[in-house]
TrEMBL record:
It comes from Amantichitinum ursilacus. Residues 14-98 form the Gamma-butyrobetaine hydroxylase-like N-terminal domain. Keywords: Iron, Metal-binding. PANTHER family: OS02G0197800 PROTEIN. The lineage of its organism: Bacteria, Pseudomonadati, Pseudomonadota, Betaproteobacteria, Neisseriales. InterPro entries: GBBH-like_N (IPR010376), GBBH-like_N_sf (IPR038492). Signal peptide: none annotated. It comes from the Bacteria. GO terms for molecular function: metal ion binding. This is Gamma-butyrobetaine hydroxylase-like N-terminal domain-containing protein.
Length: 126
């Protein structure tokens, strides 16, 4: 996990919108990102999802309806997200949350391409 540097934007607000399953994160540089629970789950920084070495990690499928049931602070540098599918082993550093927001369009397209390459059409993963 990347560490904090003096330039790492710090969150000023973290708000879970339960009905829409969106985590809204505002940063001290003025950026505000709305990250779906599904997106956060499929890009979990855990070894279970990322894999234990180089490579694309483990493709996560069937996560459209996943929700957050807990958000736990980890020091002054990260949060641990607890999902209703039992996944809770990823620590989301401020830097990683910022990256997920900043690079959302690219990362989401990459995820959809990986699903397609695996022969799993998006929306039929239940």
């Amino acid at each position: 996990m990347a560490g904090l540097t003096p330039d790492t934007p710090q969150p000023t607000e973290i708000k879970l919108h339960k009905a829409s399953r969106v985590l809204e994160v505002a940063f001290d540089d003025g950026q505000r990102y709305q990250l779906t629970c599904e997106y956060l789950r499929v890009y979990s920084p855990s070894a279970e999802v990322r894999g234990h070495g180089a490579g694309p990690g483990v493709l996560q499928v069937g996560k459209q309806n996943v929700s957050l049931v807990g958000i736990e602070p980890v020091g002054n540098y990260a949060i641990k997200l607890v999902f209703d599918d039992g996944h809770d082993s990823g620590l989301y550093s401020w830097e990683y949350l910022y990256e997920l927001g900043r690079d959302h369009a690219t990362k989401w397209q990459d995820y959809l391409h990986r699903l397609a390459a695996a022969g799993v059409p998006y929306g039929s993963q239940h």
